[in-house]
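Record type: ASSEMBLY
Status: queued
Input:
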Amino acid sequence: MKRQTTAVILLLIAVGMVFSALTSAMFVRRGLGGDWIALPIPALALWNVLVLAASSAVLELSRRRNSRTLWWAATALGMLFVGLQLQVWRDLSQAGFTVSTNPSSSFFYLLSSLHAAHVIGGIAALAAAASAAPLYWHAMSALWAYIVLLFRCLQ
Amino acid sequence: MGLAFLVWLLTAVILYLTARGPWWFPAPISQHGAEFDKHFTTLLWITGAIFVAAQLLLGYAIVRFKSRGQYATHSEGNNKLELLWTSATAILFIGFALAANGIWASVHLDQATEAALKIDVLAKQFSWNFRYPGPDGKLGRTDVKFINDSTGNPFGLDEKDPAAKDDVISSTIRVPVNTLVELNLRSRDVIHNFFVRELRIKQDLVPGMTIPLRFKAQKEGTYEVPCSELCGLGHHQMRTTLIVMSNEDFTRWLVDEGRKSR
Amino acid sequence: MTWLRTHVFSTDHKVIGKQYISLAFFSVALGIMLSLIMRFHLIRPDAKIGWFALLWPTGATGGIMTPELYLSLMTIHGTLMVFFVLTTAPQGGFGNYFLPLQIGAPDMAFPVLNMLSFWTTFLALLTLLAAFFVEGGAPLGGWTAYPPLSALGQIAGPGQGLGMDCWIVSIALFSIASLMGAINFITTVLDMRTQGMDLMRMPLTCWGWFITAIISLLAFGVLLAAGLLLLMDRNLGTSFFLPAGLVVSDQLQNHSGGSPILWQHLFWFFGHPEVYIAILPGMGIVSTVLSVFSRKPIFGYKAMVFAMFAIALLGFLVWGHHMFISGMSPYSAMTFSVLTLAVGVPSAIKTFNWLGTIWGGDLHFTPAMLFALGFVSVFVSGGLTGLFLGQPAIDLYFHDTYFVVGHFHMIMGVAAIFAMFSAMYYWFPKMHGRMMNAPLGHVHFYLTFLGVYAIFIPMHFLGIMGAPRRYSDFKELEFLADAGVLQKFTTHSAYFTAAVQLIFFGNYFYAKRRGPAAEVNPWRATTLEWQPSSRPEVHRGPDVYSLPGAREDFVMQQDKK
Ligand code: HEM
Ligand SMILES: [Cu+2]
Ligand SMILES: [Cu+2]
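Status: finished
Output:
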């Protein structure tokens, strides 16, 4: 339905504002002083870009082929992503980076958990088979790629 | 109808209080202060004229077009008129902004190159500390580690540094008249604000930053400095005084204090 | 069960609109009471009042108010007024009720989301008020919550512990609720208009709600982000806003490298647009009311729409004018100054066009009309002082003085509240099917109009004398020794004006139950909410009054000829 699509686009704008605010805060914070340490992003976080991208691709396929099975497969991949994110955080804290270690890790934990919360919302929307869910889901895939790219660039 | 008279009455009262009321700025004590007042007065005249014109027109329309069973004129606007007043206000308002920039620049940009008497300012909840280099002309090294109010070391002077020995620390600020002064404003806990009404300047002290502020006071006297940025429950008590002294008095005071602190 | 469904957890936009208005009523009443206590304290700081001690056992031990209690009241007053009154009533209240009716939609686009956003707002209000009851009491940092004061915890002041956390959580919830509302409003305008209701045929009220929703959509996310960062600084040991080497109460803090200014940028990027969120719906209402009771089309409808868009756009580029004195680069101050005065231009256009609308009209002074005219008066008075504050050279003196307090109460507080009164008198017949008493409405207006000028004009003079804001008393300042009379006058004007509002509340609650029945279209207005059938087709713009040759002096939007 048209309404749903409009709403999802608006929702994405709002989410985009939250993440842009945090991104610009991050750039400002990084430029402030010498205390910024480049964060060694766990490799798993990179793989996770692929997991979400795959989930998006499967979802798109499901939409084209009108296949319920593929839709559920995409949802399952989303859940896998959340599970793997937990492992990412574990890896990171084992490497000595907790929330308060350095502004870089503070921002990483904040951005990734905020993103994860949005992904969980997306999983709920997929489970409810909402018609505009794929649009939102693709944006979440892109958002994770963006976050990882951001931290890679800041190294 | 009643509304028109009320609007006019209020306008008249506001005009009267502005022109004649006892509640006004203190006299300025610096060139910048005088310029500020001049600009303010110009602005007041222009905005005052707009204020009066708008309220008069509003009142007039209320009286003139009160319903007496007339048929309203059917008009959806007037593009020429709109273009006219839009461009007029645009020019006027932007003009204001540009006109004031000179005064702003004179505080924050122009004097930066001149030599000035440097005073280190460190604010905390809820008091002020000012530090002058002693007779050696050098400010001593400091470190937050050493900050201790009970032993009289609010700046955290490093005792090992010989230059720190004669630093003069004061809870009021004294400056010589007709001398360019540069404050280095810092805060050690929350944001505070240094405000001297007679100088027409105001500047936040932001933790983590050192903010320079320059002024030249041209009249001897004692002036109040009220903290003007909310800093906690004692904000209203965070007050000090600026004492503008003759050059001789100032030098004598500095030497005396320097001797005492050693 | 059904009672709960229809009256409490209803998804009907009309019920939700009324719920928002009730929430705003409660908040404004509480906010005004707090302000009266503050005003009382300012003239009698040493007074011993028994029931203060009952209400605030620690903040007013023995009945004497502490400075921290004053500051807590101030913080909650400001927060209630800005968020829970001026962001809820105009948009969530009247917008919810009338947007669907005016564009001929059956309801908002997402009724359940609508209900959720109300209840989230409600939860936010509870969370805010909870701050009074937690250890240390409500926060004392003002509605702007500047760090480090807001980030350090209880060591920085009694209310800065749990109370401050309550404030942040409340504001975060409020932001989420506002975002849900914004999505709903924009979708409704874009996708739910009835046939023939082109965008340029919408009443200006709808434009006000629409553009306000767009601003909310872009602004509240930034506040939410800032709130999260602040929460982390407070509770997780991060250093976004806290620099190294802070010594608070002689204790060295363990933070490094953050910047208090970062918060100010994020906060005001939201904060300045927020004042337009408060006023734009009011501008729409005033435009409509002036046109109805002048029996004239809006002067320059297109210019009015354009001006609202210009205000929204420029509103996002001027946040730095709150930070002229914070140590920002002098060059950016100059840029922000030019942009700030530029935002005055569309505001001036609106004022001219309001005057143009009544000019040559056939003016009927109903209470709604009086409040709309009063709005124009205070909008001019409050707007002109903004021209002073928008210049860094002048702000060098006025920043954080009572001049600012006077300015924003006029332009944001009083103007927006006047628009709300106007809306209430105007739409009461539609909302409750009855008429409010007009003579009482007149009395209410005249006394209020006088009262607000009497409260807030003296504050400008205090500011000219240099009185800093957020002072719990002025005894220490010698230069204000002569200002006692201004303070007393302001306080008594506040008592007076607050008392006058009882006339309104009495009129409102009486009329709601016993008022004479209203006709379908009592004001002979043209917009869709005043016609009986649902979802008609629309044939013309919203303001066709006094058309030469027409049968009556108004032609409704759905009328064919
Ligand atoms: C009877 C009406 C009102 C009175 C007597 C009143 C009085 C006051 C007083 C005494 C202060 C504290 C000033 C200070 O200590 O610095 C204040 C602050 C404030 N008021 Fe009001 N007020 C009224 C209505 C409103 C309204 C309608 C608004 C809506 C915008 C409002 C918004 C604020 C805000 C935002 C602050 C600033 C709080 C802060 O500094 O953080 N007030 N008001
Ligand atoms: Cu202070
Ligand atoms: Cu602003």
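Annotation: Residues 3-153 of chain A form a domain with the Four Helix Bundle (Hemerythrin (Met), subunit A) fold (CATH 1.20.120.80).
Annotation: Chain A has one domain: 3-153.
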